[in-house]
Design a protein that fits this description.
- This is Sodium/proline symporter.
- Pfam families: SSF.
- InterPro entries: Na/Glc_symporter_sf, Na/Pro_symporter, Na/solute_symporter, Na/solute_symporter_CS, Sodium:Solute_Symporter.
- Keywords: Amino-acid transport, Cell inner membrane, Cell membrane, Ion transport, Membrane, Sodium, Sodium transport, Symport, Transmembrane, Transmembrane helix, Transport.
- The chain is 76% helix and 1% strand.
- It is mainly α.
- It has a single domain, classed as Up-down Bundle (Sodium/glucose cotransporter), CATH 1.20.1730.10.
- A two-stranded antiparallel sheet has the order 1-2.
- A hairpin with a 2-residue loop joins strand 1 and strand 2.
- The protein starts with a helix and ends with a helix.
């Protein structure tokens, strides 16, 4: 059985490395080509790449597990994510694509901040680059931990060996192929995740006798599984703050560098509506599949003589029980695809900040494109090695780390990006104050206990962090009253170009 699974995974690894080789041979050897694909990506690749790098392993493990335990009340997070992603495509993507090109061809988020606010002091660039480097190194480490655990739980391999396998494949195609390789592998991985999330709950449903029989089985176990406001096994209803906290995950989209950088790489703003339709269709169907896997999986476990020690492994268990080993290997590869797609995106964004925002901007402004591409590849390797070291011996859940990093990026960058794109009177000092305020409030909310409990337990930290950021941006920008004709001219040029390309 394991030999068939290994064959499927082996084929998957070969495809990923082959794409990396293809991208290496077809990527322009300049920094824009390596870090942004030359701004030539098709809308379908942009959409699935953004989706795959966004969802990670939690889509196939964390969300089904939450649905398995809590029922339909766990879907509030999915509702929030759909609304947030749709707004991201509609309001951020087109304007960011044009603005980053007009603003001296910015190729990273810190680069965009520096150009947007004419920050000759480099404070904005340095602060945002540090936030990206620190949080994404930890974020990358959490993905490697997930890969190690997958190999350990599914194949009985040593945890460290699983860690090395996951890191080795991701680093290889990212190191050589750059943004083009990451985006193309994300496209394939997104297709793989989509098929898996549709296939598994469909097969479970037929095993239980069809959709009607499945729903009846779930209702017989506990009607609360179909309640949006009552978690299974709890006599208390979800509070308003509880629902807001779950839906507030959607706010994080506006500030996630590894997602919004995809919008900067699309070949034309005119392609954005197609990307939005493809991306949102993929996301909604994949989320429905993930939720259904947890809900139908609970009914399947209850109807058969089996136990499930960890609800987050329901997708893995169903893959192994219901499918031929070759298909099971394909489904396990989908989990690995979710993990690897996010790791590769985070590696590239982190290395781009190290190279473009630290090395080139502060240390060597006269560096050639060949030098920058070489340093970028070395940065990918260096960040990966550090992430592996941090992942060594890690045996605890990574959900909290991912949740905290999502809140940190969303609260630190989201309001600055939104206001920077739409409010011409926003100033450099306002951006700095907003970014610092959002970051500090979020960290306090996450880690400083009040009356023996952190505030994040009552309200997700991204909400107060987001509000603090916006408040600081408005107040400081109003008090600053800086009149920069260059900033205003760039803003007007962006608005004009958007109207022309609409």
């Amino acid at each position: 059985m394991l030999s068939s699974v290994y064959i499927s995974l082996g084929l998957y690894f070969i495809v990923m490395l082959g794409i990396g080789l293809f991208a290496y041979r077809n990527t322009e050897e300049d920094v824009e080509g390596y870090l942004l694909g030359g701004r030539k990506l098709s809308p379908a690749v942009v959409a699935l790449s953004a989706g795959a790098s966004d969802m990670s392993g939690w889509m196939l493990m964390g969300l089904p597990g939450a649905m398995y335990v809590s029922g339909l009340s766990a879907s509030w997070i999915a509702i929030g994510l759909v609304i947030g992603a749709w707004c991201n495509y509609l309001y951020v993507a087109p304007r960011l694509r044009v603005y980053t090109e007009v603003a001296n061809n910015a190729i990273t988020i810190p680069d965009f901040f520096a150009e947007r606010f004419n920050d000759t002091s480099h404070i904005l660039r340095i602060v945002s680059a540090i936030v990206i480097i620190v949080f994404f190194t930890l974020y990358t480490s959490s993905g490697l931990v997930a890969g190690g655990k997958l190999f350990e739980s599914s194949f009985g391999l040593n945890y460290e060996l699983g860690l090395y396998i996951t890191a080795g494949v991701v680093v290889t195609y990212t190191l050589f192929g750059g943004f083009m390789a990451v985006s193309l592998t994300d496209f394939v991985q997104g297709c793989l995740m989509f098929i898996a999330l549709i296939l598994v709950p469909t097969v479970v449903m037929f095993e239980l006798g069809g959709i009607t029989a499945t729903m009846q089985s779930i209702s017989a176990i506990d009607p609360a599984y179909f309640s949006l406001f009552n978690a299974v096994g709890s006599s208390e209803s979800l509070t308003v703050l509880g629902i807001i906290s779950l839906m507030a995950w959607g706010l994080g989209y506006f500030g996630q560098p590894h997602i919004i950088v995809r919008f900067m790489a699309i070949r034309s703003v005119k392609d954005m509506p197609i990307a939005r339709k493809v991306g949102m269709s993929w996301m909604i169907l994949a989320l429905v599949g993930a939720l259904s896997t947890g809900l139908f999986g609970m009914a399947y476990v209850a109807a058969n003589p089996m136990t499930l020690a960890d609800p987050e492994t329901i997708f893995v268990v169903l893959s192994q029980v219901l499918f031929h080993p070759l298909i099971a290997g394909f489904l396990l590869a989908a989990i690995l695809a979710a993990i690897m797609s996010t790791i590769s995106s985070q590696l590239l964004v982190t290395s781009s900040s190290l190279v473009s925002d630290i090395y080139e901007a502060l240390l060597n402004q006269d560096a050639t494109d060949k030098q920058l591409v070489l340093i970028s590849r070395l940065a990918v390797l260096g960040v990966a090695i550090l992430a592996i070291i941090l992942a060594m011996g890690e045996n605890q859940s990574i959900l909290g780390l991912v949740s905290n990093a999502w809140a940190g990026f969303g609260a630190a960058f989201g309001p600055v990006i939104l206001c920077g794109l739409y409010w011409s009177k926003m100033t450099r000092l306002g951006a700095i104050a907003g970014m610092l305020s959002g970051t500090v409030v979020t960290l306090v909310w996450l880690y400083v206990p009040f009356a023996g409990e952190v505030l994040n337990a009552s309200l997700y930290a991204i909400v107060p962090g987001f509000i603090a950021n916006i408040g600081a941006i408005y107040l400081v920008s109003q008090l600053d009253q800086t009149n920069d004709p260059q900033m205003q001219n760039t803003f007007n040029t962006v608005v004009k170009k958007l109207k022309e390309e609409a």
